[in-house]
Amino acid sequence: MIIRSLTLLVLAVVAIGCSGLQAPLNPAGPSARSIAWLTWTFFTICGVVYAVTLSALIWAVMRRRRDEDDSPRTSRRLGTVVGAATAVTVMTLVVLTISSIVAGRGLTTPSGAGAVVIDAIGHQWWWEFNYQDVAPSDWVNSPNELHLPAGVPVVIRALSRDVIHSFWVPNLQGKRDLIPGILTYLWLQADQPGEYRGQCAEFCGPQHAHMAFRVVVQPVGEFQEWLRQQRQSAASPASAEAQHGQDVFMQSTCRTCHTIRGTEAGSRVGPELTHVGSRRSIAAEALPNDRTSLTTWIRNAQLVKPGSRMPPNPLSETDLKAVVAYIQGLR
Amino acid sequence: MSAAAARDEAERERRALERTWAVPGGFLGWFKVSDHRTIGKRYIVTAFVFFILAGIQAALMRLQLAIPENTVLGPDRYNQLFTVHGMTMMFLFAVPVMEAMGIYLVPLMIGTRNIAFPRLNSYSYYVYLFGGIMLYAALFTNTGPDTGWFSYVPLAGPDFSPGKRVDMFAQLITFTEVAALAVAVELVVTIFKLRAPGMSLNRMPLFVWAMLATAFMVIFAMPAVVSSSTFLLLDRLVGTHFYNPAEGGDALLWQHLFWFFGHPEVYIIFVPALGIVSSIIVTFTQRPAFGYTALVLALIATGFVSFSLWVHHMFATGLPLLGLSFFTAASMIIAIPSGVQIFCWIAALWRGRPRFQTPLLFVVGFIVIFVLGGLSGVTLASVPLDLQVHDTYYVVAHFHYVLIGGAVFPLIGGIYYWFPKMTGRLLNEPLGRWNFWTLFVGFNITFFPMHIVGLQGMPRRVYTYPANMGWTTSNLISTFGALFLVAGGVMLIANVIRSARSGALAGDNPWGADTLEWSTSSPPPVYNFLELPVVEGRHALWERSADPPVVTGVRSDKREVLVTDVMDAEPVHLSDMPIPTIWPFISAVVTAGFFVTSIFTPWALVYWAVPIFVALTGWFWPKQGEEGDTLEDKQAIPAESAA
């Protein structure tokens, strides 16, 4: 049993070490690193405690019985051993508590000057990330794709518009619940450019399983460039087909939920689509962002995410193809 | 008096007792029964039926999760299944089955003839049964709750869960809390007032101590969940705004109220199991309990501290870190009484000469699994660590280690241990060993990989997962392990069914145990004890004099029991137990009618007021010959000796 558990543990360590887009023990920022360090400390100490307890149990069960076992002296000695074991337990717990509190304080350290503030808003079942700026016209809204500058502290303002969700990018920081009516903050920082995955961690309804997002960490300059690009209004349709797609979009139910800045579509029920063509995936990481997926998704999203708020769209094949072309052009 | 005359006298006494305490017969009699053995057995069997149903749900979920992007179950069905699985395990299996063990065993262990408030006991069983039937009627009509067993608002509120699914959740809680509170009150009174003379508190069996601590925890924990589920029902039914932030309500209020109940709930399940473990270890080492006082204090300390842990379910909600630190400390502190108990049991095994029969195997398995679950619990007490693993499969692994390892293993050990007392026949020993090893291996194969997949970032309560996350192997192993658990469950059922009919006859005390239930026949007679025992030591049957004293002067022509005082169990007076009637059943029917109707209309309160009034009036209607004699007439004298 122990051997099997140990083998599994070794396998696990290996597995955790090499997978890792969404793994707490594969830290890519200071907070996650200190939690990972704390985790290994806890695991080591608890592992030793488990090994000692189990050895004592095995010894107790296997040992040869002797006549003096029933003497009061044996009981007294055992009492002393139990007392000592309890004292060691208390001391171990004190050490663990203190190290936990010390590590916890580090996680809430106020960010330095120049921190980027991002609103993370949870919706059933997608994410909205808002980058505020001095002029409201410069605000950027990036659904399901969180862009971060590398090496810069970031403050996440956690909000929810419907039910409780939980914002969690394990490689960067522990999770934080998004609770309607309560505004909370979370500080995180990513060391290096790279991509990670975040996922809703609090059960939030039928499509909780498909409520993930992508974290794109970029060098500061590239991040600024991305912001600048995202601030622009939507690109005009580049082809006749895309133009037809835009017409279909504006005349069908699409515009009752989505915003495309620079057009008359301005509803905030669903994710903003102004730059949807620039994103890597759609439907909160449920599908890659390509022609086939977009077609499937627009025709009947319920086949991919049953229960999702996106209704089926009975468009003709030509119209559907045109809408997809239009959407893909929104870079 | 000659020996023959004494024998005749004893035989007359026995016949009289049999008549007085007779179980009502016939079809209607089935609904009148109020003796603790019958109700206890019904409770246990019903709870195991729900356990099997919840196990089937778990197997279906494992099937869905075996491979990524599986489509055996859609999200709607999966979410109902995990919700009903959790609710069944917590509300319809674990708590009731532990209380049922108390209902059956406590009166026998403390040497009395029935549980206090027997009609309430019968009422509680039917309320519990009807609650369970309601939940499963809902599930089978596709109206099963689908927001998780702790149904956080606003998801469970009227805006995001229209329909009646969540109301089923709220009302199931109402059903089970009424049933649980009733049993808790019965147990406290039984333990405090009906103990055999001589069984002072410091001589009480550890199982009885555990049930006492549990009963108090139920009494203090349930009001919080009564409020929370009632507020939820009101929000959903009459448009109050307790949990609606838009109107000044608070979504976190639910979490505080629910977990103030929800964390003690875990210990309500776990503490009776500790009592079972202590009983088995004493019997199978054939030695007095090691560290009796420490074990009792640990049980009580666990009960107290369990009420100061609830916020560790809410570390991610953004409460201030300083406040959270107190809950970290409290969560660490509860490891101390658990540790003390584990150390005492290991010391008892070290010192004694353990006989490794099935019950003790389950206890050793319990220690191996529970210590690991306890240690993963220590890791969860740390705020930063919890922020990473909270709501992941790591937590799923943790609570299955503490609940299955910590409660179900001792419970099954307890079933193997007490089955001979309940039925008169032993369970099959070789099959029992197979049963243990299958469950032990299967359990670890199923749940150990969940630690790993949790640390790899897999959140709980997802009906499917992408293939590229590296979670596939662990999930497949877990599903494979579930096969062993199913096999283990089948073995247990087969063993119970086979042994109940043709198992080896047990005799009064097959294990050479120390507690009073083993001094009467197996199964016990309707009056439990022919002569009410007097207790001379902590281990009643091991410290009995050659010619043990018994209580005399308790009437056999009416349901009379001896009432003793709380501390020293000195006889105080005699009291009548009520005779069986149909009214508790009728009261349970109207209670159920009221609870179910109030899912649909607030007028239920009005509609059902009259039936409830009628039922309770019938229940409490004084009957001739049932009033007690005056106190002075009822002084009982425990005789020095029968002869």
State the gist of this model.
By secondary structure, chain A is α+β, with helices and mostly antiparallel strands.
List its traits.
heterodimer; A: about 325 residues; alpha+beta; Immunoglobulin-like; 3 domains; 5-stranded mixed β-sheet; 7 helices; about 40% helix; elongated; B: about 650 residues; mainly alpha
Describe the structure.
Helices cover 40% and strands 18% of the residues of chain A. Chain A is an alpha+beta fold and 331 residues long. Chain A has a five-stranded mixed beta sheet. In chain A, strands 4-10-9 form a three-stranded mixed beta sheet. A two-stranded antiparallel sheet of chain A has the order 6-7. In chain A, helix 6 (291-299) packs across helix 7. With 643 residues, chain B is mainly alpha-helical. Helices cover 63% and strands 2% of the residues of chain B. Chain B has a two-stranded antiparallel ribbon with strand order 1-4. Chains A and B meet through helix 1, helix 2 and helix 3 of A and helix 4, helix 10, helix 11, helix 12 and helix 13 of B.
Break the fold down into its secondary structure elements and pairings.
The complex is a heterodimer of chains A (331) and B (643).
Chain A: H1 2-18, H2 30-62, H3 72-107, E1 116-123, E2 126-131, E3 140-143, E4 145-149, E5 154-160, E6 165-167, E7 176-178, E8 184-188, E9 194-199, E10 212-218, H4 220-231, H5 240-251, E11 281-282, E12 287-288, H6 291-299, H7 317-329
Parallel strand pairs in A: 1-5, 4-10
Antiparallel strand pairs in A: 1-2, 2-3, 5-8, 6-7, 9-10, 11-12
Helix pairs in contact in A: 2-3, 5-7, 6-7
Chain B: H1 3-20, H2 26-32, H3 36-65, H4 75-109, H5 118-140, H6 165-193, H7 206-237, H8 251-285, H9 292-305, H10 321-333, H11 335-351, H12 358-381, H13 383-389, H14 393-423, H15 429-455, H16 472-502, E1 551-552, E2 560-564, E3 571-576, H17 583-597, H18 604-620, E4 637-638
Antiparallel strand pairs in B: 1-4, 2-3
Helix pairs in contact in B: 3-4, 3-5, 3-16, 4-5, 4-6, 4-7, 4-8, 5-6, 5-17, 6-7, 7-8, 7-9, 8-11, 8-14, 9-11, 12-14, 12-15, 14-15, 15-16, 17-18
